[in-house]
TrEMBL record:
Transmembrane segments: none annotated. InterPro entries: C2_dom, C2_domain_sf, C2_SRC2/BAP. GO terms for biological process: defense response. Residues 1-126 form the C2 domain. The lineage of its organism: Eukaryota, Viridiplantae, Streptophyta, Embryophyta, Tracheophyta. This is C2 domain-containing protein. It comes from Jatropha curcas (Barbados nut). PROSITE patterns: C2 (PS50004).
């Protein structure tokens, strides 16, 4: 099985390239490296499995600085075949600081999809707990600096919204937020 590298050379409707979409709750980060020395750091996250297929983006946290909170559910698409072909397929979260002239890389985290996607049915509450995992953030230099809190439901989808209205509220941007009773498990 050859791995596809580089940019997509098939048309979007190619049957071999069926896309799968998963939902990821990007909760918060802590103790990030401050890469904005003049003003308060304003971080956002790019979330992807295959960068050339699809990249999702969180809003910018204007106030959290090196301890940002996003509480944002993003949807990430990737080729369905990837899970069958690549045991190292991973969800990547790249954290950037928004700047006036350019955005600076703060760090990145990586979670193997086989560790988080366990199957089950999105509409079964038992298959779909809202929890949290904490993973190490790595600086571009390769040094560990900071932690990222996130959650990927084992089914890849959160409960149907109408059934989970007691779990989700609305934040100012109109996105979903999970109540702060979420416990994080350290997984570094």
């Amino acid at each position: 099985m050859s791995q596809v590298t580089g940019y997509h050379h098939h048309s979007k409707n190619h049957p071999a390239d069926q896309l799968r979409e998963i939902e990821v709750l990007i909760i918060s980060a802590e103790n990030l490296k401050n890469v904005s020395h003049v003003t308060k750091m304003k971080p956002y996250a790019l979330v992807y499995v295959e960068k050339y297929v699809h990249v999702a983006r969180t809003h910018i946290d204007e106030h959290g600085g090196t301890d940002p909170t996003w509480n944002e559910t993003v949807k990430v698409s990737f080729r369905q075949k990837l899970l069958e072909n690549d045991v190292m397929a991973a969800l990547n979260v790249d954290i950037y600081a928004h700047g006036h002239l350019s955005d600076k890389m703060v760090g990145s985290a990586r979670i193997l999809l086989c560790d988080v996607l366990k199957g089950g049915k999105p509409d079964e509450p038992a298959d779909n707990p809202i929890q949290c995992m904490t993973v190490q953030v790595w600086r571009p230099s390769g040094r560990p600096q900071g932690l990222l809190n996130l959650w990927v439901p084992p089914t890849g989808k959160f409960l149907l919204r109408k059934q989970s209205s007691n779990l989700f509220g609305k934040d100012k941007q109109g996105g979903e937020v999970v109540n702060s009773g979420v416990q994080c498990m350290l997984d570094v």
